[in-house]
């Protein structure tokens, strides 16, 4: 196997990292998957257990690994943006400092997201000036603290020090399978719909009028993986930031009813007020345990499957949000996925793997 096709996927247990690992292995890359609790269900993935905040354990875990490419797909959520900046910048800084003496790294890819344009969690779409949509890579940074900016700055500094090339990837909401992921809109909606079906409840839209009526897009985890591999192996795409979405647009006012139809339940759309999912869903945790027992599901703890707070954040935006893919298209990336297929294929996978009934 070529030495320049050795990947270290940081966050290999998450939605983005697991799909990327699968794609890399299919393309004959030697692939290491680093996380605190490494996955063992991806055939060909070499697990690496390490804590990115513990440089001693990180040094030991990586002492015999010489990656040519690093794909950074993880982050840690904290209560304030100041803490998000402190911790998440340290994750990247520690990793690249530990790898630096070996001088094996030729390229580093960093996955961030649209909060680059919309603002951090504690000031989300509240900067005083709402972004012009579609958002594109030419938009300047907001005048707000943002851990994505801190991550980028760590990447730029390490690239200058060690001489590797880089890419930054900014997906919209990522749709794909993962258990225990902090931001998982697709699985959250699948669990909610499954509860609605069992309890004969309406599938209630939780978000804003702007999101209900406006145009939106999302990012299938497999499309993100394709763009990560494409950019890392295309010299003309190096040292650039790229938005990445499925390539289509949709309205939640249509897709919400299509999701309800897939589950065979009745839906309620926007009714002049937001009805956040977080509080409502948490009340159904005991019902989910009953559903899991009845159907022999693999995860009876609803909190390990859902992230209603993040779903509310996405669906409650006061503006429509869509993403300009022109820069990526001009550079040669042609990946595309139907958003309806993204959701329905995810639901089918969750059902086949006994995550939902």
For this entry, give a set of tags:
357 residues, alpha/beta
The main sheet orders its strands as 3-2-1-4-5-6-11
The outline comes out as globular
Number of strands: 13
Number of helices: 14
- The overall pLDDT, averaged over residues, is 94
- State the oligomer: single chain
Straight-line N-to-C gap: 41 Å
Radius of gyration: 20 Å
Residue share in β-strands? 5-15%
Taken in chain order, the helices and strands follow as: EHEEHEHEHHEEHEHEEHEEHEHHHHH
What low-confidence regions span 5 or more consecutive residues with pLDDT below 50?
none
Largest β-sheet summary: 7 strands, parallel
Pfam families: PRISE
Protein name: SDR family oxidoreductase
InterPro entries: NAD(P)-bd_dom_sf, PRISE-like_Rossmann-fold
Domain PRISE-like Rossmann-fold: 68-357
What topology emerges from the helices and strands here?
Layout: E1 6-10, H1 15-26, E2 30-35, E3 46-49, H2 55-61, E4 69-72, H3 81-99, E5 107-111, H4 115-118, H5 147-162, E6 165-171, E7 174-175, H6 185-199, E8 203-204, H7 209-213, E9 215-216, E10 219-220, H8 221-232, E11 240-244, E12 250-251, H9 252-263, E13 267-268, H10 277-282, H11 285-295, H12 308-315, H13 326-331, H14 339-352
Parallel strand pairs: 1-2, 1-4, 2-3, 4-5, 5-6, 6-11, 7-10, 8-13
Antiparallel strand pairs: 9-12
């Amino acid at each position: 196997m070529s030495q320049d096709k050795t990947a270290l996927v940081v966050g290999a247990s998450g939605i983005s990292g697991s799909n990327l690992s699968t794609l890399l292995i299919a393309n004959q890359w030697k692939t290491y998957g680093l996380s605190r609790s490494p996955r063992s269900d991806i055939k060909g993935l070499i697990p690496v257990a390490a804590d990115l905040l513990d440089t001693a354990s990180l040094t030991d875990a990586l002492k015999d690994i010489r990656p040519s490419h690093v794909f950074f797909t993880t982050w840690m959520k904290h209560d304030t943006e100041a803490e998000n900046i402190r911790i998440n910048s340290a994750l990247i800084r520690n990793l690249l400092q530990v790898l630096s003496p070996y001088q094996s790294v030729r390229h580093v890819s960093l996955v961030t997201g649209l909060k680059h344009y919309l603002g951090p969690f504690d000031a989300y779409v509240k900067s005083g000036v709402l972004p012009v949509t579609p958002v594109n890579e030419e938009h300047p940074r907001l005048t707000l603290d943002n851990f994505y900016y801190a991550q980028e700055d760590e990447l730029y500094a390490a690239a200058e020090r060690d001489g590797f090339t880089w890419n930054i990837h900014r997906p919209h909401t990522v749709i794909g399978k993962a258990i225990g992921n902090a931001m998982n809109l697709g699985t959250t909606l699948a669990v909610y719909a499954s509860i609605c079906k069992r309890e004969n409840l309406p599938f209630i839209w939780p978000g804003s009028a702007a999101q209900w009526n406006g145009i939106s897009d999302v990012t299938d985890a497999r499309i993100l993986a394709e763009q990560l591999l494409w950019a890392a192996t295309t010299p003309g795409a190096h040292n650039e930031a790229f938005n990445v979405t499925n390539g289509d647009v949709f309205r939640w006012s249509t897709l919400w009813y299509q999701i309800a139809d897939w589950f065979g339940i009745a839906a309620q759309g926007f009714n002049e007020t937001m009805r956040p999912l977080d509080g409502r869903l948490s009340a159904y945790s005991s019902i989910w345990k009953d559903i899991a027992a009845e159907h022999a599901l693999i995860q009876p703890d609803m909190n390990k499957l859902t992230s209603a707070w993040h779903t509310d954040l996405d669906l409650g935006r006061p503006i429509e949000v869509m993403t300009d893919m022109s820069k990526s298209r001009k550079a040669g990336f042609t990946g595309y996925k139907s958003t309806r297929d993204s959701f329905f294929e995810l639901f089918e996978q969750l059902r086949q793997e006994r995550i939902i009934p």
